[in-house]
Amino acid sequence: MFKKILIANRGEIALRILWACRELGISTVAVHSEADADALHVRYADEDVCIGPPASRESYLNLSSVIAAAEITDADAIHPGYGFLAENAHFAEVCEACNIKFIGPSPAVIRQMGDKSKARESMEAAGVPCVPGSRGTLGSEVEAMALARKIGYPVIIKAAAGGGGRGMRIARSEEELRVAIQTAMNEAKKAFDVSDVYLEKYIADPRHVEFQMLGDERGNVVHLGERECSIQRRHQKLVEESPCTALSPKLRKRMAEAALAGARAANYQNAGTIEFLLAPDGKFYFIEMNTRIQVEHPVTEMVTGLDLIKEQIRIAAGEPLGYTQDDIRFFGHAIECRVNAEDSESFVPSPGRITNFNISGGPGVRIDTAAHADGIISPYYDSLVAKVITHGNSRQEAISRMRRLLDLMVVEGIKTTIPVLRRIISDTDFLQGRISTHYLERLLAGGKPVAAHS
Ligand code: ADP
Which protein residues are within 6 Å of ligand 1, measured from CB? Predict the structure, then answer.
């Protein structure tokens, strides 16, 4: 087992990894930017290293500074968390070259899945259903036109290097397609430095359903069930739950088998997520694989009882999974709400100092956060304040616990998304499981968020 792990991240996920290391008796190194000198992950780690100025590019994304910090502190592994360097194949290669274990899949798999058009090809070859679309990236506008005519509009143009919902454009006609290709390419170039795009059929009103996968370094692969992540704004998830209310046992089994086939074909190691779109007619399609721990991993932990970060560490240390698919049990229902520092109507970021912070506990409650009273939500990084997670024997119980938590949660000094989350949690369509990726758009068009109780 590792003796010392460097955590190449910040915020709630850095703390989450820290707790797992502590429980495993592994010492920890926090890295931080100048803006995060007082952050909790720095305070609680055994050692800490400042890796640069506030801008992520110069600190958390600065590969050489992170590696230097690991070398100086003699860390034998790096956990990248999510975001930042988590899906950077080059970083994983440099770790390997420096004899530091990268806690994640191999660089080759990160690279393969990081190119979403290549990922599609490999999944298709493994027999996983994919959204009809281009083979590889688009060569020309003419090719795109011909393909769109063949599969039928609407279509979606997506960045091969995409992530975080960027570089995606929908086109409903030839005229729109011309513009969509250009805008998606420009956006992709700006965001990812690679302008390659590919084309897919645009699936109307789908659900986003993803499967949590775990593979060890000896070829054992299991799935830990699904997460329903349809509640999104601009392709960014707000509320996630497990299980998904739309899956019959038969459909769940078919999707899980497809996910397992995909992960096995990729020789997948460590934790990863296979994302599907589930159409209203029950057909499902692979859209991408994320080769890291996901923000929404706690809902899976709540229903399986597994600690995914510890599993990641154990796997990276070469240990076998030690259980088979049949050993994995699912119990109850879990929901996660992402409380962001954003105006709940305009979704404009609202960084600043938190003057008051309070959240109640109780049965089936989990709060993953690095926020606290007098703490700062920095304008330099993402606006996540807290992940509020509840578990119940039934979906209804998880929802009523969530409602209580959100109703009583106090975050002062900054604006948060709590009002919109409260509105979702009490909405009839949500309560009845009538959701799709367009759900939030429809809800927001319908009226104003409910007033706070307090
Ligand atoms: P990213 O990597 O940027 O998160 P994804 O490929 O995972 O991009 O897609 C994010 C979201 O975009 C999906 O959850 C879904 O809401 C929407 N989306 C992506 N592809 C399609 C498609 N072919 N049809 C309809 N919606 C799509």
Answer: 131, 156, 162-165, 200, 202-203, 206, 208, 232, 235, 275, 277, 287-288, 437
Find out whether 129 and 197 touch, Cβ atoms under 8 Å: no
Best residue for ligand 1 mutational test, from 113, 277, 285 (most atoms within 8 Å of Cβ):
277
CATH of 4-103, one of 3.10.105.10, 3.40.50.20, 3.40.50.1380, 3.30.230.80: 3.40.50.20
Global pTM value: 0.95
Q: List residues with catalytic annotation.
A: 292
* Mean of the per-residue pLDDT values of the chain: 96
User: How many A from CA of 232 to the centre of ligand 1?
Assistant: 10
Paired tokens of 316: 């990276």
First to last CA, the chain: 49
Tens digits of per-residue pLDDT, 381-435? 999 999 999 999 999 999 999 999 999 999 999 999 999 999 999 999 999 999 9
Please state the CATH superfamily assignment of the domain spanning residues 207-445 in this structure: ATP-grasp fold, B domain (3.30.470.20)
Distance CA 32, CA 38 (A): 9
